[in-house]
Amino acid sequence: MKQNLKGISETLLIPLWARAVEAKYPDPIIKDVKAAEIMEEIEYDFARFDKEWPTQISVVVRTEILDNATKAFINNHPDAVIINIGCGLDTRFFRLDNGQIQWYDLDLPEPIKIRRKFFDETDRYKMIAKSVFDYSWIDDIIDDVKDRKSILIIAEGILMYFTEKEVKNLINKLATSFHGAEMLIETTSPALVKQSQKQDLIKNQYQIDAKLSWGIKRGGKWIEKLNNRIKFIAEWHYFDYHRDRWKTIRWMALIPPFKNRFGNRIVHFSFIPL
Question: What molecular function does GO assign, one term (predicted)?
């Protein structure tokens, strides 16, 4: 099928490719067969990504970390509400569904249009075609979930494309709207943001017109300063997982300044109830 993705939206094809490639490994970190099927159906020059092995391993490691954190949340809250911001062509619901959770995939209209070619909505799985900054989506979900109280919000591969002000405003809005919820976000470092901007890395490496805008050195302190109702829980650094797949980077990652300067993390925190 043809796709009309541009800018930041086009970056969703990178994790799709990464998961599809991983599915073909004899001993994959994650086995996302659906991603491989979707990639076969989309008209796009995925070969442009073939040399980007650090990106490929980074995506599958973050997928595993987020899968494990989400599964743990679902195990503790079997009837939870999961909100996946900037879902792209993610398949997490279909891999983790326990038959009880309520799941919302949120993205811009064009990515959601493509999703609808491959996924069907149900009473427990819904897609919302809106910008994350069109806060009417929050009202849509609150009206829909009614008395469900356990909420997990996921923001994977998206916040680094927003400005610091936009990220702060978004997280503060979520803290106000979803009392007691937990959130998982992907963060990158300021050094990588600066390098990306200076060298226009995304355009040069992936031939995609998008730029990184936001990064943090550590998750906990920055997150808790945003709002006095935010409580840091944990963070996971990608270089700490599957070291055999990081090639020469695994040795450099043993040096703390390098690890902190050049790696991505998943940060987990909660919104303290009123």
Answer: methyltransferase activity
CA 171 and chain centroid, separation: 15
What CA–CA distances, in Å, run from 101 to 23, 107, 154, 178, 235? 26, 20, 15, 17, 24
In this structure, are residues 183 and 153 in contact, taking their beta carbons and an 8 Å threshold? yes
Bridge partner residues of 265 (DSSP):
187, 237
Tens digits of residue pLDDT in 83-118: 999 999 999 999 999 999 999 999 999 999 999 999
- Check if the beta carbon of residue 9 is closer than 8 Å to that of residue 84: no
Q: Tell me the DSSP string of 225-245.
A: HH-TTEEEEEEEEGGGS-GGG
Task: Phi first, then psi: give them for residue 125, nearest 5 degrees.
Answer: -130, 120
Cα-trace Rg, the chain: 18
Enclosing H/E stretch for 109: helix 109-115
Q: Two tokens at 76?
A: 């503790």
Q: Whose CA is closest to 139, among 82, 178, 180?
A: 178
User: How does residue 39 score in pLDDT terms, banded at 50, 70 and 90?
Assistant: very high
- Please report, in angstroms and rounded to a whole number, the separation of the first and last CA atoms in the chain: 47
Domains in the chain and their CATH numbers? Answer: 7-271 (3.40.50.150)
Burial 229-262 (b: 16+ CB within 10 A, else e): bbebeebbbbbebeeebbeebeeebeeeeebbeb
Q: For the full predicted model, state whether its pTM sits above 0.70.
A: yes
Q: Are 186 and 114 in contact (CB under 8 A)?
A: no
DSSP 98: -
Query: Comparing C-alpha atoms, which of 137, 157, 162 is closest to residue 66?
Result: 157
